[in-house]
Specification:
heterodimer, A: alpha+beta, Arc Repressor Mutant, subunit A, 3 domains, 9-stranded mixed beta sheet, 3-stranded antiparallel beta sheet, 15 helices, 40% helix, elongated, B: Amidase signature (AS) enzymes, 11-stranded mixed beta sheet, globular, binds zinc ion
Chain lengths: 488, 486
């Protein structure tokens, strides 16, 4: 059950650190390709294997992508930026230091507005910086833990993949807000076309800093850092657990201890990973193998021009231009493909609200069921529009349309063709309908009499009879009209 | 003179006249190696077969006119064992890399290969280039060819001893705080450290990234300039290499020093410098004046802090650079360790020597939280002062002159137990690295006990021209022709 934030005496104070893997062609500091689950250690070279004498060279594309993200998050782009070395030993780190950024990150002081339905939370962005990813460790044995394994294997395909870290201010006030922030961040970055941003695939990752304080108090309490929050759901669940744990501690008169905790999604609890005393001293110092990057305003301006219309702006436009509700506008603008699809439909069919209803209703339901994206679906915007036109023309009713759409979705067929093949076309021929209606009226004198006496219900009965006789193909609107006329 | 004592340009002339073959050159170098190597230990790895067959191949290419004879074609060059040679062990004189075989060539090696050079062998050095005596080698110390009871200097002791003794025609060393110039001085040869960024560091196993620079050790200034022509130039694989045109360094060789303004660095002619060394330098000052130079004394007060700054910055960078030697991917690994932590600890405890461990510890301490500002950060600020002081001096002078080393070659074992005294050996050379300047050491004569004395000539950033001009004219004036007794 979700945490009832509004009724708590305490208020959570949450800050998030998100890691975004960029989808550049090559790695951050060498010419190796990025890999997607191929054989182990094939995309490696002396640089990303940390061989003696090898040196890093900055991937310009990654810098451009990072600037793009920072700009989209309303950050100030620094005049120049430098890399630092973050020193610590671990086998997935080829050099035993990570090239990262420290006191001169690329972007600072931004914000992201998160729509929470009845309010908007503005989350401050402290910094956006660049760094390199580590390799992956695989431990033999059943537990998968390094301490219990016979052997460990390191795969360096991922080592050196460009990463962007987005750090927020402690502005987030509930686990739900945290989840919504991450979703908004993902949607935003997907718009920029610089990352796959998938939490399932690990191209979007997140750590959280959490503390709680009595409502109305300024001072921030002792925080813990939560790791392994690797889905939107686990992010919320993990934070809910941690907030509750901290509140219980304070309520029972104990203290929160500053530590790093690991979220275990199986048991849905957080466990101590290391205490403050065990925290690494990363011994940051400026990376002497690289030179500063000067961010010329021309370059920043050029990158700015490549940023497309972002979700918030798009939603406002949809509201105005197409007369959609706020909810519908937000829904359609949060996903670039969905938004593009919607607008393609709008260009060939006039009733935007109808399009929105279908996209958000049956269409979305099928996409979710099949776990595919709108881009992967076989329904073209043209075919969806055709179907809507056919419904408007009264050829099929909405119930029939549902089954037609299912076939369009499954087979990618033209709706006209499906209707023809299945003989689904509605009987909209007046003389044909009149003949059937005459028959029904004759066979049901009772209900006819009731209707004449003013019982509306009797009309539905009669229409139902007509529909049954035509096997559902009659146009209900026309049937209604004809019966009413005949009996009045 | 014996073939193994000729210079590269003399050999080139003879090759061109077909008076000699590459195979003969390689053969004479290897017979000299057979003769003296057991007394000197200049090399960590030798491959006679490979060198001789390689020379034969080049002879064939020359006789079939497939290649032109250019500088260093067929010339046996010793390479300090901290430069990566593809498929050939590169140990850094450390147990931790005892069997490490690089999968790629350092940029300088590629450049030499394009000239069809001959790899004489991988030369001995202080472990990871940390030392001034070559005593910190896992493979045993190199001896000075002038007196095998003495050190050859360090850390490029092997590259210096091999060239001085005729075990190679010339060599490549690396210089972080004097590691080319000081051994060149102690072995009576020429050693050049170019401007930081002139030569790609790609493939040079890093000691201190902001100070390391590769450079030549040769028998004369001509060869030195020719080698700079080969190895200098911007490299896309090294972000710190300078993107600037490479001049023809040989064009700067000059007969005289007319119009040159020369500064004698007061702080580097003071008490800590041996009397004999000072006198030799003073002799060269007279010669510089006779050659048309204008000589004046100059004070660079911030040099007082150079050693302190160096021994914070260099170990700090080293502590991070050397953390990749962990037994995970390559190099020595302790196989008895049962946990990851134990594997790291035992691998590194066994793999690194005393001096390397000392510097890793100093560096780790200097970068630690709470100490960073007081040490690393402050050292960087003082480094800026030193850079600015040099800048000021070069506003007035074309080159600065000092001894290269405060002493001649000292006895093996004399300073090894006393790191601080050992560190003083680089007092004259370290400031140059801190400021990223080009500097050369040329022989300035012999001491009474027949040990070479070196003269250091320092230029402004990217002003190798002035250094070479002064060095070539003083070289002629000094006329140092002695060879070691070995
Ligand atoms: Zn690579």
């Amino acid at each position: 059950m979700a945490l009832d934030i509004k009724n708590l005496k305490y208020e959570p104070v949450i800050g998030l650190e998100a890691h975004v893997e960029l989808c550049t062609r090559t790695k951050m500091f060498c010419g190796c390709r990025l890999s997607f689950g191929e054989d182990k250690n094939i995309y490696t070279c002396p640089v990303c294997l940390g061989h003696p004498g090898s040196l890093p060279v900055i991937n310009r594309k990654a810098v451009q992508y990072a600037i793009k993200i920072a700009l989209a998050l309303n950050c100030k782009i620094q005049d120049y930026t430098i890399f630092h070395r973050k020193n610590y030993f671990y086998p997935d780190m080829p050099k035993n230091y990570q090239i990262s950024q420290y006191d001169l990150p690329l972007g600072v002081k931004g914000h992201l507005d998160v729509d929470m339905g009845d309010y908007t939370r503005r989350v401050g962005i402290t910094r956006v910086h660049m760094e390199e990813d580590t390799g992956k460790l695989l431990h033999t044995g059943t537990t998968g833990r390094i301490s219990e394994s016979e052997a460990s294997i390191v795969d360096f395909n991922r080592a050196g993949t460009p990463l962007i870290e987005v750090v927020t201010e402690p502005d987030i006030r509930s686990p739900e807000e945290a989840r919504e922030y991450m979703i908004a961040l993902r949607n935003l970055i997907l718009f920029l076309d610089v990352s796959n941003c998938s939490m399932e695939e690990g191209s979007l990752r997140c750590d959280a800093n959490v503390s709680v304080r009595k409502k109305g108090k300024e001072k921030i309490g002792t925080k813990t850092e939560i790791k392994n929050l690797n889905s939107f759901k686990f992010l919320q669940k993990g934070l809910e657990y941690e907030v509750e744990r901290q509140i219980k501690l304070l309520e029972s008169g104990s203290k929160v201890i500053q530590q790093t905790r690991h979220y275990d999604s199986k048991t849905a609890i957080t466990k101590v990973l290391r205490s403050k005393e065990e925290a690494h001293d990363y011994r940051y110092f400026p990376e002497p193998d690289l030179v500063p990057i000067y961010m010329e305003s021309k370059m920043v301006e050029d990158i700015k021009k490549t940023i497309p219309e972002l979700p918030a702006t798009k939603a406002k436009r949809f509201e105005k231009q197409y007369g959609l509700s706020i909810y519908d506008s937000n829904f359609l603008s949060n996903d670039r493909d969905l938004a593009d699809y919607f607008e393609k439909c709008c260009s060939c069919y006039g009733n935007a609200k109808n399009i929105a209803n279908w996209m958000m209703g049956d269409f979305s339901a099928l996409l979710n069921k099949e776990k595919i994206t709108i881009k992967e679906s076989r329904v073209t915007p043209e075919n969806l529009c055709r179907m809507l036109e056919i419904i408007d023309g009264g050829k099929i009713n909405s119930k029939m349309a549902k089954s037609v759409f299912e076939e369009m979705f499954a087979a990618g067929k033209d709706p006209g063709k499906i209707i023809e093949e299945r003989g689904l076309e509605q009987i909209a021929d007046k003389s044909m309908l009149e003949a059937v209606i005459e028959e029904v009226l004759r066979d049901n004198p009772g209900p006819v009499e009731q209707f004449r006496q003013g019982k509306e219900k009797a009309l539905s009965f009669l229409i139902g009879k007509v529909m049954a006789k035509t096997k559902g193909k009659a146009n209900p609107r026309m049937v209604n009209e004809i019966i009413t006329k005949k009996l009045s | 003179m014996e073939i193994h004592y000729l210079t590269a340009h003399e050999l080139k002339d003879r090759l061109k006249k077909r008076e000699l073959s590459c195979a003969e050159i390689a053969g004479s170098i290897y017979s000299r190696i057979d003769e003296v190597e057991n007394k000197l230990n200049s090399y960590i790895r030798l491959d006679k077969e490979h060198a001789l067959s390689g020379a034969g191949e080049i002879d064939k290419l020359i006789s079939s006119n497939a290649i032109e004879i250019s500088d260093f074609t067929g010339i046996p060059v010793a390479i300090k064992d901290n430069m990566c040679t593809k498929n050939i062990t590169t140990t850094c004189a450390s147990r931790i890399l005892e069997n490490y075989v690089p999968i790629y060539n350092a940029t300088v090696i590629d450049r030499l290969e394009s000239r069809n050079y001959i790899l004489a062998g991988k030369a001995n050095m202080d472990e990871f280039a940390m030392g001034s005596s070559n005593e910190n080698s896992y493979f045993g110390p190199t001896k000075n060819p002038w007196n095998t009871g003495r050190v050859p200097g360090g850390s490029s002791g092997g590259p210096a001893a091999s060239v001085a003794s005729g075990e190679a025609i010339c060599s490549l060393g690396s210089d972080t705080g004097g590691s080319i110039r000081q051994p060149a001085s102690l072995c009576g040869i020429v050693g050049f450290k170019p401007t930081y960024g002139r030569v790609s560091r790609y493939g040079l196993v890093a000691f201190a990234s902001s100070l390391d620079q590769i450079g030549p050790l040769t028998r004369d200034v001509d060869d030195c300039a020719a080698m700079l022509n080969v190895i200098c130039g911007c490299d896309g694989n090294d972000s710190t290499s300078i993107d600037t045109a490479v001049p023809d360094f040989k064009s700067f060789l000059a007969e005289d020093m007319k119009g040159m303004k020369i500064g004698i660095v007061k702080e580097l002619m003071a008490e800590g410098i041996d009397r004999e060394v000072r006198e030799a330098v003073q002799m060269t000052i007279k010669m510089a004046e006779e050659a048309g130079g204008k000589v004046e004394e100059v004070s660079i007060p911030s040099l007082e802090y150079a050693l302190d700054v160096y021994y914070i910055i260099a170990p700090s960078e080293a502590s991070s650079n050397l953390s990749r030697f962990d037994g995970v991917r390559y190099g020595h690994r302790n196989m008895q360790a049962r946990t990851l932590r134990e594997m790291y600890q035992r691998t590194r405890a066994e793999g690194f020597g005393e001096e390397v461990k000392r510097r890793i510890m100093i560096g780790t301490y200097c970068l630690s939280a709470g100490y960073y500002d007081a040490y690393y950060e402050k050292a960087q600020r003082v480094r800026t002062l030193i850079i600015n002081d040099f800048k000021k001096a070069f506003g007035k002078f074309d080159v600065l002159i000092s001894p290269t080393s405060p002493t001649t070659a000292f006895k093996i074992g004399e300073k090894i137990e006393d790191p601080l005294t050992m560190y003083m050996s680089d007092i004259c050379t370290i400031p140059v690295n801190l400021a990223g300047l080009p500097a050369i050491s040329i022989p300035a004569g012999l001491s009474a006990d027949k040990l070479p004395i070196g003269l250091q000539i320092i230029g402004d950033i990217l002003r190798e021209d002035n250094v070479l001009k002064a060095a070539s004219s003083l070289e002629k004036a000094i006329g140092f022709k002695d060879k070691p007794g070995i």
